[in-house]
Amino acid sequence: MVSGMLIATAVVLPAGGAQAAAEWTHAAAWGDNGVGQLGDGSQTSSPVPVAVLAAGYGFTKVAAGDGHNVAIGAQGTVWTWGGNHVGQLGDGTTTSHPAPVKVPGLIGVVDVAAGSDFTLALASNGQVWGWGNNFRGQVGDGTTVRRLSPVRSTILSGVTQITAGLDYALALRGDGSALAWGENSLGQLGIGSYDDQVVPTVLPTLNGIAKISAGGRHALALRTDGSVWGWGYGWDGQVGDGTQYTRPLPVNVLTSEYTDIAAGSRFSLGIRVDGRLMAWGDNSAGQLGLGTTEHRLRPTKVTTLPATVTAVSAGGAHSLVAMTDGTAWSSGSNDYGQLGTGPTGDSLVFTQIPNLTSVTQVSAAFRHSLAIREVPKPTYTIEVVFKNPTVPAGGTVTAQITTTALNGSVQELTLTPTTQGIPATITPATVQAGAQSTLTLTVPPQTPPGTYQIKITGKTTLTTVPSATISTIFPIQVTRPE
Question: DSSP characters for 79-141?
């Protein structure tokens, strides 16, 4: 070390203090983006994952609809983005948004669901709110009036989970019973008839339910004993009972051994207790991941994946899964890039999505996909090095400023000096993490001798995460003029 050298360092932490410095979650999206459903501020489709813009940082759950999305943010706030021609974003307008917007008036939300052109939110007190297209009663407020802003269903209470299909929805209550409302032309409500229901109606023959999943026009239920039940449109075998019949009442598909389910447009997925993925129904695009395009009328083991599946989602004609190692895999149709694996065409087997790690949740729509992943806090160091921190009045002294990104953080920082009456410049003032800048201090001739504090502040202005600031204070010694 050179004699007289002074080194000052500091570390950037994300805004919000120690709590915010923990692992954060972030939303990624890929596929069709014609109405801004990827949330990256553009309408450019992407066959690989892109980051949802700023509000997406800290999302804990996402749900993908036909051309719009809904997510839960901090304090249970609700955020939406994408198409909005019938008010499905819930912001009181019919203006589409290519980046997340906050839904006014909602807080403490614990679950969300997105249908074709409508949206649902479940509050922690068991109440359900809905908005968007309502011509089949799918909003659940007992009317067929279109809603541009959230309305609370006065009929639903004690709800613990919600799920949305094309133009219908289901709700699970704490007592293990389920209710259904909206379109019922193919028995997808599971109530034994084919009449639409504007008022949520209890499924009469099924109880002890642990989870529900609404697909295109069929639905699944997972009971507490691990058994799987299906109902609704069954032409492609998506109900899973070995037939191609439409079932207006739930039928038993599997007796036990299941931990999760997902109903897609015309196919279904399930996770067994051993982590194996099971698939059945339409397979015309290879969405079952079996290596063929043969439909399956009963659940079939997927052998193109290891037995480590933790989360699953079924879309229009593609499937998404998250694994115990945090990777995400996809199979099926890729005509809009919805597999996330690049513009490589459909895939008959599950393929890992590149550059997508620490995934905790996936959500597949018709032509686009979403994922929630854990990401490290953005962390940087800033180092200021003076070879000689002593300068005479009327003299000039320089220092090298080096910024370093930690934990894979890559972001531009703007550096600002604060001095005690000593003119200072930083060139360049805005740098990518890892680059160097030069600090120049020009001490006026009349400056009294003494110790002066110099402060360097670095600020990140991030488009995909909250901004963070860093500052370090160090002294320089001013002597009498030479």
Answer: EEEE--TTSTT-SSS---EEEEEEPTT--SEEEEEE-SSEEEEEETTS-EEEEE--TTSTTSS
Largest separation between any pair of C-alpha atoms in the chain: 98
- CB atoms under 10 Å from CB of 75, counted, come to 9
Assigned token pair, 313: 């989602």
Q: What whole-number distance in Å separates Cα of residue 250 and Cα of residue 473?
A: 68
Domains in the chain, CATH or no CATH each? 6-16+378-479 (2.60.40.10), 24-375 (2.130.10.30)
Cα–Cα dist 448/195, whole Å: 89
Strand 390-392 with 468-479, pairing: parallel
DSSP at 378: P
Assign 406 a pLDDT band (cuts: 50, 70, 90). Answer: low
Q: Quote the CA–CA distance of 226 and 396 in Å, as a whole number.
A: 75
CA distance 182 to 162: 14
Contacts of 97 (CB under 8 A, 6+ apart): 36, 80, 81, 82, 84, 89, 91
The DSSP code for 447 is P
Torsion of CA 133, 136, 138, 140, to 10 degrees: 110
Under the banding of pLDDT at 50, 70 and 90, the label for residue 412 is confident
Q: Please give the average per-residue pLDDT across 167-184, as a whole number.
A: 98
Which residue in this structure is represented by tokens 């799918």?
A: 138
- Sign, CA dihedral 234-236-242-243, equals positive
Q: Indicate the average pLDDT of the chain.
A: 90
What is the pTM (predicted TM-score) of this model?
Answer: 0.82
Pairing of strands 430-432, 390-392: unpaired
- The alpha-carbon radius of gyration of the chain (Å, integer) is 28
Structure tokens given for 249: 């009442």
- Please write the tens of the pLDDT for every residue from 290-303: 999 999 999 999 99
